[in-house]
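INFO batch 0412 | record 1 of 1 | parsing
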Amino acid sequence: MKKLTSMWLPNRNRHLLTAIIALFVLLLNTGCKKDKDDNSGGTYSFSNTEYTGTARVGNHYYPRPLSLRFGADETVSAFSYLTLSQWQRNFEGKITKVQENAQGQTEVTVLFDLPGNEQFNSPQTFTISADKKTITGGTPPIVSMVDMKLYPKTSHSIVGNWSQPANIGWFPDVNAISFDKNGQTTYTQGGKPIMATADPTDPSRFKLNYKQDGSRITFSGINITAWPEVFIIPYYGVISADGKTLYLDSYDFSAASLTSSFSTFEWNGPKGVTPWLLREK
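INFO prediction complete | emitting tokens
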């Protein structure tokens, strides 16, 4: 083994060498910088965060509600309704690459696990803003962000009344809808409550269950065009980052009272726009 010996240098040379070493260490630390933030409680500065809003998910007529969650490590969870050759209500993925660009933004590459749809899949690259408040990017037909913002760690509650107060004819399956603290919904259509029976003396409201997982809501819409027969339509929704909007869509688009690319009139809502309800104050 070669023995290292000390070497005498003039003061000026020693100071120059010290400056070069310090610069080298600084460059080394900068070049090897990992997107890490101890406050996140995970591998990356964006670990354990969630973004909600709307995105082009699968082959669909309008942007769909989306909740995108980053786990503590490389895991990613997407809550929406991905329809290609097969459909998935939730789809998982893993982070394959993370890097910071010159603008201080974080570029995250994700590969989703899509059994039966592998032919459509490719790595999705999302860009998180320098302040971590928004996320953009993605590639059709899997996920292409439209308007996604950072959701608070303490989730908004869905409990309350949600409606389209200026447009009582829009989205009739769910307009207006009330979520109570016991996990049930009640409904109003055209300003009138939906009753449990056709008996006018029965004061009970028609109720169905719902579930909330943070920003993610699964619930039902109802179609009473053949009253007293009631058709129950499966819906899902995502609460916006500010807690004021519920973006929604149906799992059974053929049965839901929503607009489509084939709609002649906009009786059920504006064409090509994600359905939404507003939280009543």
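INFO post-check: The helical segments are 11-31.
INFO record closed
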